[in-house]
Design brief:
The complex is a heterodimer of chains A (482) and B (159).
Chain A lengths: L10 H11 L11 H9 L7 H11 L3 E3 L7 H11 L6 E4 L2 H4 L3 H14 L9 H14 L5 E4 L6 H9 L4 E3 L15 H20 L5 E3 L11 H17 L4 E7 L4 H21 L6 E7 L9 H17 L4 E3 L12 H19 L7 H24 L4 H11 L17 E4 L5 E5 L7 H18 L5 H10 L11
Chain B lengths: L8 E6 L7 H12 L3 E4 L6 H11 L3 E6 L4 H4 L3 H7 L6 E6 L8 H10 L4 E3 L5 H15 L9 H8 L1
The chains are: A alpha/beta (482), B alpha/beta (159).
Pathway (chain B): Amino-acid degradation; L-glutamate degradation via mesaconate pathway; acetate and pyruvate from L-glutamate: step 1/4
Pfam families (chain B): B12-binding
GO biological process, one term (chain B): anaerobic L-glutamate catabolic process
């Protein structure tokens, strides 16, 4: 493979690659771009994701979206239609075999699920169901539907689902590699996602606006806001280059109110800053907030409290969309009823916060200042490493640890950066690894951690980090000694 | 062999297409702190990789994690594969969210016991308790080997 660069794929490159992609599983044979455009053009306005986001953004509303996916089409359709009255936009969560292009195993999962009379897969195997199967699903729904997954090479998945009328596609070459894969080289997943973005760009050029959403929360575990912001901004730049024009950038709840509000408010501003500086002006930017992505309490009432804290922050910071968790989170894939319960609790909280005034405090402003300083420092280094090319720069940044995601499984990630909570539960850096943050920012982190260490009368150590990872499922935010 | 010299070496990993890495890191940290030697294979580990590592490392136990719901599919015939490779007596634990959805744990436990796992744990299990069980189970299966011809001796002699 030639060295990665952030440049729009040429038509010839795209078409040659496309012919290969569509051959990787038999269902690829039925994909036709003109037919796909016709399917998208025929969607009524209430089933277009980009429109729902634009309207919510204009009216200052926050959309709710659950996660859901089961093995069989009819069951998945029933599940989504059962969720539809409680949410604004629909998901289709893809199963883990499909995410790793293991379609033969997905087929076995479909067959066994049929035999068992219940889904044995943790999501909807869209590639195996093919364009016709996916279209049957979209036709049976009355709201926009998005593909949500975790796929380093999602080219065939994108071809099939977009041809069937899905109008939003989650993921990115970094955010669907680092937290979701083990052996995939970063330049390869970025290149495969350039294809996905280019496909969306081609729809855009044909007059069809497909929404693209880089995956914000990454590993969902003590991720410092600047880390996920940098990934979101870089994936946004990569998508814009391929012709994507409707972007939703994400952030996963960290737990501390001031830090979470600051993170969401700074995300939009920072993204606009980098997008405008790269010469893009004609894009539509919205945000998505993910309720707590870490370990949940087993008790359903306690889990509901975690969900409500997320809803409060998301609404206070005016996120365009919330990805909603369920009281079954600790037990894995939820039932329809548990999913409805999470949506109802979130809706109640969003409604109660909606009429209230915007909360501002010096604490929030301090967090915004810190996040912005961190993002600028890392972005500067990424652009320096890539000699102005953000694709080249991000690959080198991960290789050298300039970018580092905590708790990530991918070999492409150094894993030296270690976060820990401060005395108020905000996420700080216990070890910055090789991330080039300014000295005053590093001193701020050190002071905040020292404050907690004094309060707990123990030295900061990895034990503190382990306690923090397990804290929320044990009903606290900060992992204090017993 | 005296108590202090006994080693407790285990192979740890997340099975199948599951890439949940956080619990894996926490397990490694807590088990190591508890005096267990952990060979951590990380995420997305196949049955073959577990078994080969257990043979190569002369491990006393295999700890299989699964959090994404495909545990039942991924763990089919695990004990039989161990037996084929001469690991019929190895201590086999499995833990996590092993099936799709919130199911009665006793039913899930019975199903995985039936599949040949010695112990089955929910995600909420107290890890200190797991360490105690692991030591006892490994000791119970330890072959009656004399010090001079044990695998451990060979490794030490080489070092």
């Amino acid at each position: 493979m030639t060295e990665i660069e952030n440049r729009m794929l040429s038509d010839a490159t795209f078409q040659a690659e496309r012919a290969e992609v569509l051959k990787t599983w038999p269902s690829g044979g039925t994909v036709d771009f003109d037919a796909a455009v016709a399917v998208q053009a025929a969607l009524p306005p209430e089933k277009r994701f980009a429109l729902a986001l634009a309207e919510a953004d204009a009216e200052g509303r926050t959309l709710l979206q659950p996660r859901a996916g089961v093995a069989l089409i009819r069951e998945h359709e029933a599940l989504l239609n059962g969720l539809s009255p409680y949410c604004d936009v629909l998901p289709t969560t893809i199963d883990a075999y499909t995410r790793h292009n293991r379609y033969a195993e997905a087929q076995e999962g479909i067959d066994r699920s049929r035999a068992a009379g219940t889904s044995l897969l943790n999501g909807f195997p869209a590639v195996n169901h093919g364009v016709d199967g996916c279209r049957r699903l979209v036709d049976a729904l009355s709201k926009p539907v998005q593909v949500r997954h975790g796929t380093p090479d999602a080219r065939l998945l994108a071809e099939i689902t977009l041809a069937a009328g899905f109008s939003s596609f989650e993921g990115g070459g970094i955010s669907y590699n680092i937290p979701y894969a083990k052996h995939v080289p970063l330049e390869r997943s970025i290149r495969h996602w350039q294809y996905c973005d280019r496909l969306v760009g081609r729809f855009e050029e044909a007059g069809i606006r497909i929404n693209r959403e880089p995956f914000g929360p990454l590993t969902g575990t003590l991720v410092p806001p600047f880390v996920s912001h940098v990934v979101a901004i870089v994936e946004g730049l990569l998508a814009l280059e391929q012709g994507v024009r409707c972007l939703t950038l994400g952030y996963g709840q960290a737990g501390n109110l001031a830090q979470d509000i600051a993170a969401l408010r700074s995300l939009r501003r920072l993204a606009n800053h980098y997008f405008l500086n790269a010469g893009f002006t004609d894009y539509k930017l919205t945000t998505v907030f993910h309720q707590w992505m870490g370990g949940f309490p087993e008790d359903e009432a306690q889990a509901t409290a975690v969900i409500c804290l997320g809803a409060l922050v998301a609404r206070q910071a005016r996120a365009t969309k919330i990805i909603v968790k369920t009281p079954h989170e600790a037990a894995g894939v939820p039932t329809l009823e548990a999913n409805q319960a999470g949506l109802k609790a979130t809706r109640q909280m969003v409604n109660m916060i909606s009429d209230q005034n915007r909360v501002d405090s010096p604490d929030i402003q301090t967090e915004i200042d810190v996040i912005e300083a961190e993002v600028h420092a890392v972005m500067r280094e990424i652009l320096r490493l890539g000699r102005g090319d953000v694709a080249r720069g991000i690959v080198q940044a991960f290789a050298s640890g300039v970018m580092d995601v905590p708790f990530a499984p991918a070999r492409a990630n150094l894993g030296k950066l270690t976060p820990v909570r401060d005395n108020f539960g905000a996420i700080r850096l216990f070890d910055a690894g090789h991330v080039p943050l300014p000295d005053d920012v590093l001193a701020f982190h050190r002071d905040k951690i020292a404050e907690r260490a004094r309060a707990e009368r123990r030295e900061p150590s990895f034990n503190m980090v382990v306690d923090d990872v397990r804290a929320i499922s044990a009903s606290k935010l900060v992992g204090r000694p017993a | 062999m005296d108590e202090a010299a006994r080693s407790y070496k285990i192979v740890l990993g997340v099975i199948g297409a599951d890439c949940h890495a956080v619990g894996n890191r926490i397990l490694t940290a807590v088990l190591t702190r508890g005096g267990i030697e952990v060979v951590n294979l990380g995420v997305m580990v196949s049955q073959e990789e577990f078994i080969e590592a257990a043979i190569a490392e002369d491990a006393g136990a295999i700890l299989v994690s699964s959090i994404y719901g495909h545990g039942e599919l991924d763990c089919q015939n695990f004990r039989a594969r161990c037996e084929e490779r001469g690991l019929g007596d190895i201590v086999l634990y499995v833990g996590g969210n092993l099936v799709i959805g919130k199911q009665d744990f006793a039913t899930v436990e019975a199903r995985f016991r039936e599949m040949g796992f010695d112990r089955v744990f929910p995600p909420s299990v107290d890890l200190e308790q797991v360490i105690g069980l692991l030591r006892a189970d490994i000791d119970a299966r330890r072959p009656m080997a004399l010090g001079h011809n044990s695998g451990r001796f060979v490794v030490e002699a080489r070092a």
